[in-house]
Structure formats: structure tokens, C-alpha cells
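Q: Here's a chain of 182 amino acids. Please give me its 3D structure as C-alpha cells.
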Amino acid sequence: MFQFGAIVALGFLPLVWWCARESIAFEMQRRRPDALAAINAMLARMGRRPVDALPPVVDLPRKAPLAALFSHDLARRTILMTIAAMAISLVLIVAFGHGRAGLGAMATMAAATDFAIGVGRGGSALAPALAGFMFASGIGLQAVAIVMATGSLIALLALAALPATHLYEQAGHLHQRIEWRR
């Protein structure tokens, strides 16, 4: 499944490269010699009047480099937070890992989670278009809100349908593993 997604994403790269234009703000900031012509072409495609000149350059603050995380003021905090994150990851792997069989179960759970996240992303991509279509069709705000809330209701019903005993068994097993390690 991941390979398919990667192939589709790579397939879209040339399309984006050839068809997607830079924004007007980017062209104004970059200030190439042909920036005025490029901006006027974009304005024409949007049905706007061309401009005679570019506005003055605005000096925007730069992003801090990665090395700033290890500056005198932040080095200690950065290192401690990195160690804490690694320790938490290690504890979770030890607590939830159950040998090869446990890792297989974890892989299955991860795949299911990824699938659910993918469905959610699909919903978040389609929801604005659906809402716009509904508003353009004359449907009121309350009806659109109810339709948009349907996804959350379905998620609630799906969570409620999960067998609670399975969750209690997993929690008990985790407690036993933690007790065993003490």
C-alpha cells in the first residue's frame, strides 16, 4: 500500500513541476529579472489588471538555522528533550513489544491505524468541497453542519462497537509486564 502511494506521489511530481506556478508573493520576494512579467502574467490569468512596478523589498526575518538549537542558551534543553523523547520511545517499545508475535500484532495495529488516518485525510480533503457544493446549492448552515458532523458520529459508533473486554485485557497485560520488570 505504501509503495502505491509513493508511486502515485512520484507520478504527480512532473505534473506539479510543469503546471503549478509560484505564488505572486514568492515572485516578489525572489525578485528575478523577469519577476514583473511573471507577476503580470499571473494577474492576467486571474482576470486582474497588470502592475507597473514591484513594491519595495520587505526584509522579512529569517528562520533560525538548525544549529541554533545547540547554541549556548538552548543546547542543554535540546539535548535533554531529545534524550527524554528517546527514553519514552524505548519504554513504549518495551511495554508494548511482546517478542516477534507481539511485533506482528503491533504491525497489524499500525497498518489499521494508517488506514484509518488515510480515510480521515480523504474526508478532510473532500469536506470543504462538499460543504462548498452544499452552500452553493442553497442548503443552510445547520444542515451542512449536521452532514459534516456525521463523520464524527460514525467514528463514535465505531469506537463504541469495539469490544471493551479486549481493551481491558490489553491494559491488564500491560500492567503485568510493568510489574514483572520491577
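Q: Can you summarize the key feature?
A: Residues 90 and 124 are 33 Å apart (CA to CA).
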